[in-house]
Every structure is written in C-alpha cells, then in structure tokens.
Amino acid sequence: MLVATQLQRVFILKDKGQEIRLCDPEPRWSTEAVLNFYAPTYPILTTAKISAPAIRDDAVEYRFETVMGTKG
Fold first, then answer.
1. CB hemisphere CA count around 39 (13 angstroms)
2. In sequence order, what are the residues at sequence separation of 6 or more whose Cβ sits closer than 8 angstroms to the Cβ of residue 56?
3. Cα 63–19–66 angle (5° rounding)?
4. E strand or H helix at 70
5. Which InterPro entries does the entry link to (predicted)?
6. Is the four-CA dihedral 6, 59, 19, 47 of positive or negative sign?
7. In whole angstroms, what is the distance from residue 61 CA to residue 72 CA?
8. What sign results for the dihedral spanned by CA atoms 36, 40, 42, 43?
9. Is the pLDDT of residue 3 over 70?
10. Average pLDDT of the chain to the nearest whole number
11. Span 23-58, pLDDT tens digits
C-alpha cells in the first residue's frame, strides 16, 4: 500500500559564512510570509530572495539567498 505524507519545510539562511537552519513557524504560510516572519530577527532577509525548493533528508529545503555584503 502506498502512503503519502507531507514533508516538513526547512528554511536555510547563510549568514557570515555559516548556514542557519530555520524551522517552519506555520506550515500553512507561504514562503514569502515565512521570510517576512524571520526578517525582524535576521535583517539581512529584507533583501533576500527564496530559491526553488529542494528535497533532502525527508524535508523540503528553501534557501534564503541575498547578494548583500558580496563584492562584484
């Protein structure tokens, strides 16, 4: 028998050379709403974009990518 389960969402932020894994505050929220939720805690997210989802380790990973602080 085939069983379908919903995968957990994980949001990844790269800040100062390290990856920060952020849990999903509310599964019903859109990815933009999650970005806005974490923006007061991580101000670098105010200019971030959300990458396409990738499935790894039974979770859907979204990356918050920003160009702020890079040269060139």
1. 15
2. none
3. 50
4. none
5. Prok_Ub, PRTRC_protein-C
6. negative
7. 27
8. positive
9. yes
10. 90
11. 999 999 999 999 999 999 999 999 999 999 999 988
Q: Is the separation of the CB atoms in 39 and 11 below 8 Å?
A: no
Exposure class string for 18-32: b at 16+ Cβ within 10 A, else e:
eeeebebeeeeeebe
Q: Which of 34, 54, 43 is nearest to 16 (CA)?
A: 43
Per-residue pLDDT, averaged over 59-64, amounts to: 95
Q: How far apart are CA 71 and CA 6, in angstroms?
A: 39
Query: CA torsion, points 26, 32, 6, 10, in degrees to nearest 10?
Result: -80
Coil vs helix vs strand at 10: strand
CA 70 to CA 72: how far, in whole Å?
Answer: 7
Q: Give CA–CA dist 40/44, Å, rounded.
A: 9
Q: What radius of gyration do the chain's Cα atoms show?
A: 14
